[in-house]
Design goal:
- The protein has about 450 residues and is mainly alpha-helical.
- Helix content is about 80%, strand content about 0%.
- The two termini are about 35 Å apart.
Length: about 450
């Protein structure tokens, strides 16, 4: 394999690295809220209730979901370079704006809603970029690599946000003005504009990269191996017409959409509520420093292990394909195996009570890694079945459904956390998470029992 890679060239992996960093920045900005939740809900902070916090995350999720419906279509029209750049500018600006919203819930909802609007373009643009730059058998691996940025971003936040809260508090504000929570928003927001410089300089479409001599003809041909005649013609003619409403008439669109609706909220639950779970389940009676250490290490471990799931999960179908399996059979078999892994979440609270935090976090690690493996393959089902020019649109529709599912999960988590004790609330939540993937797989398989690519666009 290494000899083949050397002959073909590696520029496409540079593109993946750019997407990896943009997704890392995206999830740094997104995760700030999760790690500030307990501060916002404390007397030393904003004195919000858990339900108030759930309104904030739900508003973000709702705007994210709503705008992904059109974000993918816009990206299919304007292209990935402009689309992803515009998306990042908006969400980074909104992240910085959050630092100046004071303590009012309404102001933060406004800033976070704007953030959701900007963030809606990240995954449609990234998934479309992978479809343009990789042959089908490598796409899940490429998606797994860039999608692992969601874990890296969470890991960085697990260190950055508690550090900001401890470093800039009381009489030790930044320049005597900015508190730790404000600095967390500012630092993560500014980093996005630094990435923008590299994106503007380094990214081109495969065709333009070939013309500039950055991409060899051998790698260009390899990237397009397996393309349909329609996709080849579309690229030659510069065609990017995608009938948005027509996308909703395909069972393939609904298969991806249901997969996102059923499972995206599970990952968002981990992002926003894992710090709270660790604090309430294992840190009662501890001082602030001990609690911060437990929360930081737990999140760092969970999201670190999820990176392995993202990359390895993306490679599973390629193993089957190299053995001669059809692409769809390989993809769905891998996803079925992955969907069974989160069932271990049913034992989380038993393990927490019997063996403590190490056992509980180990189980959550398995589920987190499984989600990322699932996500890498789920995204790739779009480019398996649709021509490249429609990938952004379909991804956006599915991401909107995933956002809607995320709203429901956030509201459920907020209700349970504010109504029941920790053990009962999280027993219910972990049970919801455990079965979501198998149900999603069954519905997807029912909608598209056999591989049938779309050829009439």
């Amino acid at each position: 394999m290494s000899n083949v890679t050397e002959k073909v060239g590696k520029y496409r992996w540079t593109v993946v690295a750019l997407l990896l960093f943009s997704t890392t920045i995206n999830y740094m900005d997104r995760n700030v809220i999760g790690f500030l939740k307990d501060y916002f809900c404390s007397e030393d902070g904003f004195s919000w209730t858990p339900q108030m916090f759930s309104y904030l995350t739900s508003a973000f999720t709702l705007f994210y979901a709503g705008f992904t419906l059109v974000a993918g279509w816009v990206i299919d029209k304007v292209g990935t370079k402009i689309g992803l750049a515009g998306s990042l500018i908006l969400w980074s600006f909104a992240g910085i704006l959050s630092a100046f919203m004071g303590k009012g819930l309404g102001a933060h909802i406004a800033a976070r809603s704007l953030f959701g609007m900007g963030e809606s373009g990240n995954f449609p643009a990234s998934n479309k970029t992978i479809a343009e730059w990789f042959p089908k058998k490598e796409r899940a691996l490429a998606v797994g690599i860039f999608n692992s940025g969601s874990n890296i971003g969470a890991m960085i936040c697990a260190i950055l946000v508690p550090w900001c809260l401890l470093a800039w508090t009381g009489d030790h504000k930044f320049f005597g003005v900015l508190e730790g929570w404000q600095m967390a928003f500012l630092i993560t927001g500014i980093i996005g504009f630094i990435w923008l410089i590299f994106w503007g300089i380094m990214y081109k479409t495969p065709k333009k990269a070939l013309e500039k001599g950055q991409l060899s003809q051998v790698e260009y041909d390899y990237i397009h191996s397996g393309d349909s005649a329609q996709e080849t013609a579309d690229e030659a003619n510069g065609s990017n017409k995608v009938p948005w409403l027509k996308m909703l008439t395909y069972r393939q669109t609904w298969s991806f959409t249901i997969g996102k609706f059923m499972t995206d909220g599970i990952w968002w639950f981990l992002l926003f509520w894992l710090p709270t779970y660790v604090k309430h389940q294992f840190c009662v009676g501890m001082d602030a420093d001990q609690t911060a250490t437990y929360v930081m290490l737990s999140n760092f471990i969970v999201f670190g292990i999820a990176i392995i799931g993202s990359v390895y999960g993306g490679s599973i179908p390629m193993t089957f394909i190299n053995k001669g399996w059809a692409t769809y059979k390989a993809r769905m078999t891998a996803m079925l195996l992955i969907a069974a892994a989160p069932l271990v979440l049913l034992f989380t609270q038993w393990a927490a009570g019997s063996f403590g935090i190490v056992a509980a976090i180990a189980i959550i690690c398995i589920a987190g890694a499984a989600h990322q493996a699932w996500s890498a393959n789920l995204f790739t089902t779009v480019s398996d079945m649709f021509p490249k020019k429609a990938v952004g649109t379909v991804t956006g529709i599915g991401a909107a459904a995933g956002g809607l599912g995320g709203v429901l999960v956030q509201l459920l988590a907020g209700y349970l956390d504010g109504t029941f004790n920790t053990n009962k609330a999280y027993t219910i939540m972990f049970a919801v998470c455990a079965f979501a993937y198998l149900i999603a797989w069954l519905l997807m398989k029912w909608l598209v029992p056999h591989h049938k690519p779309i050829t009439d666009l």
